[in-house]
Amino acid sequence: MPSGFPLPMFSHFVTMKHWLAFEVFASYISSVKGYSLVREYSGQSFFDLWDFYGAYDNTTQGNVIWVNESYATSQRLAYVDSQGNAIIKVDNTTNVPMGQNRNTVRITTQDTYDVGSLWIIDLSHIPFGCSVWPAFWSFGPNWPENGEIDIIEGINLMPDNQISIHSTPGCTHNGSEYQLGTSGTTTDCSEPSGCTVMETSLDSYGSGFAAAGGGVWATQFDVSGIFIWFWSRLDIPVSIHQVNSASMDVTQWGIPHASYFSNTCNITQYFSAQNLVLDITLCGDWAGVGTSYNASCGNSGPTGLCYQDCVVGPGSPRYDNAYFNISYRRAQRRVTVGDLPRAQITIGGVQ
Questions:
Q1: What CATH number does the domain containing 314 carry?
Q2: Where in the sequence numbering do the catalytic residues fall?
Q3: Does residue 114 lie in a domain region?
Q4: What CA–CA distance (Å, rounded) separates 167 from 129?
Q5: Cis ω before 237 (30° cut-off from 0)
Q6: Residue limits of the GH16 domain (predicted)?
Q7: Is 212 inside a domain boundary?
Q8: How far apart are CA 287 and CA 153, in angstroms?
Q9: Is 351 part of a structural domain of the chain?
């Protein structure tokens, strides 16, 4: 048992049927020696090496235009604020007429990050509100054949973040294995919803997340599996704060909120190198349909329809909370015992 897991916690969460999963995870994390910093992005350089989508949402059928970089910059839909944090937001100043869509932003890393990577994002605010659908996620170059990992995703007024992975047939998720989150009903990750895990920690999304000062997600993308942690602001591990992170010790991170082990999903078979994405869409084929919209927003306007009651008309106050606030990002390389170093990219940081 790694020294970072207190015995009471370990005994409570890891029963006998979890031993195999734990042994796989423990074997991996015990091989990590440290991390060397490759480069840091902060302040005015935050948006370097990202591509802006510059087209309508043709992926989730949202009622938005993901604008190009020059427009996003000129309209302050993507900018760095006076504290040095990156802001990505929905247009909340335009009165949108019926039949038109609202402007927002989607950015994708120019670099891809292969198996063996670690992604960390630190935010103080995640977009929320009726019709709002934000995400921090990754995808391979030939989607969906090369896999997708959804790290932060939610809709409307959901109180909790939803994690998921998507794959072609053959990758499954054993929801009983070694995680803090609650798995969805589908174990086949090729189903449209993917293999979902709902956060059970407080303040992982929406107004609660913002009121708590935000938090950090860490995603381990490795041959042994995909592991995702979340910490609210006051619970962030000391090692996450290390800029020169040779002392970063993942054994101190505790049990992941979502664990997708390679014994039921061969990571190198179903996932290739991934681009990372930050985006905000509106309505679309999740936030704007059926019970998904009506659950928290059906009474938000006279028609009970997402586009008519939210997107059309004035942007404020409807979209005043529809923005990301991100601190900074670092790129690091993992050093392992008995293995060649593998790439690590860190998106975000600590304030």
A1: 2.60.120.200
A2: 148, 153
A3: yes
A4: 29
A5: no
A6: 1-295
A7: yes
A8: 11
A9: no
- Domain total in the chain: 1
Written as six digits, the tokens of 74 are: 């000129």
Q: How far apart are CA 274 and CA 222, in angstroms?
A: 12
Closest of 219, 222, 203 to residue 347, by C-alpha? 219
Of the candidates 199, 196, 235, 239, the residue with the CA atom closest to the CA atom of residue 216: 235
Instruction: Answer yes or no: is 2 within a domain.
Output: no
Listed in order, strand segments (DSSP E) in 140-224 are 148-153, 162-166, 182-183, 195-198, 215-222
Residue with tokens 């950090």: 216
Decide the pairing of beta strands 78-80 and 162-166. Answer: unpaired
- Concatenating the DSSP letter of every residue in 119-160 gives EEEEEEE---STTEEEEEEEE-SSTTTT-EEEEEE--TT-SS
Q: What would the pLDDT profile of 61-78 be if each residue is shown by its tens digit?
A: 999 999 999 999 999 999
Is the pLDDT confidence value at 225 over 80? yes
Q: 209, 289, 191, 254: which is closest to 14 by C-alpha? A: 254
- Interior/surface letters 17-49, b for 16+ CB within 10 angstroms, e for the rest: ebeebbebbbebbeebebbebeeebeeeebbee
Domain that holds residue 318: 7-346
Question: 111 falls in which pLDDT band (50, 70, 90)?
Answer: confident
Task: State the amino acid at position 332 in one-letter form.
Answer: Q
For the entire predicted model, the pTM comes to 0.89
Q: Which amino acid is at 288?
A: G
Answer for the pair 118, 345: CB distance below 8 angstroms, yes or no. Answer: yes
> Is 226 buried (19+), middle (13-18) or exposed (0-12) by CB count in 10 A?
buried
Structure tokens at 159: 């109180």
Per the structure block, which two tokens stand in for 326? 């991100």
**Cis peptide leading into 159, omega within 30 of 0?**
no
Q: Is the pLDDT of residue 99 over 90?
A: yes
How do residues 118-163 score in pLDDT, each as one tens digit? 888 999 999 999 999 999 999 999 988 999 999 999 999 999 999 9
Burial class (CB in 10 A: 0-12, 13-18, 19+), 129: buried
Task: Tell me how far apart the alpha carbons of residues 216 and 86 are, in angstroms, rounded to a whole number.
Answer: 15
Gyration radius of the chain's alpha carbons: 20
